[in-house]
Design a protein that fits this description.
Elements lengths: L1 E5 L4 H12 L3 E6 L7 H10 L4 E4 L5 H11 L2 E6 L6 H6 L1 H22 L3 E7 L23 H18 L6 E7 L1 E3 L18 H9 L6 E4 L11 E2 L1 E3 H16 L7 E6 L5 E2 H12 L5 E4 L14 H7 L7 H16 L1
Helix pairs in contact: 1-2, 1-8, 3-5, 5-6, 7-11, 9-11
Bound molecules: nicotinamide-adenine-dinucleotide and UDP-4-deoxy-4-formamido-beta-L-arabinopyranose (WQD).
UDP-4-deoxy-4-formamido-beta-L-arabinopyranose (WQD) binds next to helix 7 and strand 8.
């Protein structure tokens, strides 16, 4: 059963490729390597014991995508990870974000329609909720105006999927997965997150600081209305997140979905503060972290975490990895990168 994985060489995509292969699917990667390295394919081979097919193409290239569907034959579904994801960069380069994130979805949907492929899992984000009025957020929690062009691309993509699915001639069945904060790496430390330059995200910044690549972590504000004053997030281990995709693909293939578009939060259901993450990292790894409190980061949401009930009840999906083990895996990956 072949599943096309766009962005399959990226952080979440590569972990999903492993889980797909181990669940008996045949993942086929499409990636332009704009934010990943071909060495990821070596990591996948080391974990799986065999090569994974990879087509180096851009998802905005309809002709090339058509060729992949035709050459592979019998692709049963698509998981669409390919996108740009840096919130700050999206403010600097909004057109590049709309072009890549929205444009490649449009191209993919056209090609899927032509090729008669009807199952799609789409990477959405908790960013669509903005600053929520109530916690935890359920899938019914109203979305808020996006605080960045990146966030807006995710909202637009969700709308595009809904409109496409509602069209009279539609055959598309979609599951939208709204990820919370993925962290950590595969237990083998052969694949993980590969941030280019200075990391924006908390956990790679922590591991690079502990490794001596960064001098100090700055915690962006401790005067929020949260238990310890620092922001609260729902940190989910990337392998747990990857497994949610297997449940989603299987649900689509079995035609068990109750609606033509279904939406699921994918998080642990628990919130942790930045200070809790720092302390847990120190306990899990024995590393003392150099950090200080700095000013708030513009655009940060004070607190958000998932209500994970729907994913548990409908998808049968539950996370199993603790924050401590997730952070330990991130550190193991950082040490492997150093070598
Ligand atoms: P990533 O950058 O590691 O992976 C994305 C992959 O897509 C990269 O390998 C990149 O080379 C590829 N790519 C980008 N544009 C492409 C294009 N036009 N054609 C072909 N390949 C292309 O990012 P990630 O963290 O694995 O995120 C995957 C998806 O999940 C993205 O859609 C992202 O917006 C979404 N998401 C990520 C997070 C997060 O915190 N990492 C949270 C919520 C949602
Ligand atoms: C986590 C917490 C920071 C770095 C982003 C995107 C979101 C989604 C997930 C894609 C925050 C604090 C961070 C640092 C810090 N991605 N922090 N010092 O902002 O929750 O979400 O990634 O869809 O759309 O916005 O994640 O890892 O950047 O930050 O104090 O050096 O860590 O303020 O509270 P965020 P993050």
């Amino acid at each position: 059963m072949k599943i096309l994985v766009t962005g399959g060489a990226g952080y979440i995509g590569s972990h999903t490729v492993v889980e797909l292969a181990q669940a008996g699917y045949e993942p086929v990667i499409v990636d332009n390597f704009s934010n990943s390295a071909t060495s990821v394919l070596d990591g996948l081979r080391a974990i799986l014991g065999h090569d994974v097919t990879c087509h180096r193409i851009d998802c905005g290239n309809a002709e090339a995508l058509h060729q992949v569907f035709k050459a592979e034959g019998n692709i049963q579904g698509v998981i669409h990870f390919a996108a740009f994801k840096a919130v700050g960069e999206s403010v600097q380069k909004p057109l590049a974000y709309f072009d890549n994130n929205v444009g490649s979805l449009l191209t993919l949907l056209e090609v899927m329609k032509d090729e008669g492929v009807t199952n799609l899992v789409f990477s959405s984000s908790c960013t669509v909720y903005g600053i929520p009025d109530q916690l935890p957020v359920t899938e019914a929690t109203p979305t808020k105006p996006a605080s960045s062009p990146y966030g807006r691309t995710k909202q637009m993509c969700e709308d595009i999927v809904h409109d496409t699915s509602g069209a009279a001639d539609n055959t598309l069945h979609t599951i939208l997965l709204r990820y919370f904060n993925p962290i950590g790496a595969h237990e083998s430390a052969r694949i993980g997150e590969l941030p280019l330059g200075t990391p924006n995200n908390l956990v790679p910044f922590i591991t690079q600081t502990a490794a001596g690549i960064r001098e100090k972590l700055t915690i962006f504000g401790n005067d929020y209305d949260t238990p310890d004053g620092t922001n609260v997030r729902d940190y989910i281990h990337v392998v747990d997140l990857a497994k949610a995709h297997i449940a989603a693909v299987q649900r689509l293939l079995d035609r068990r979905a109750s609606d033509i578009v279904e939406t699921f939060n994918v998080g642990t259901g628990h919130g942790n503060s930045v200070l809790e993450v720092v302390k847990t990292f120190e306990e899990a790894t024995g590393q003392k972290l150099n950090y200080s409190i700095g000013p708030r980061r513009v655009g940060d949401v004070p607190a958000i975490y998932a209500d994970a009930t729907k994913a548990a009840e409908v998808l049968g999906f539950k996370t199993t990895t603790s924050l401590r083990d997730s952070l330990a895996s991130a550190w193991k990956w950082q040490l492997a990168l150093g070598k």
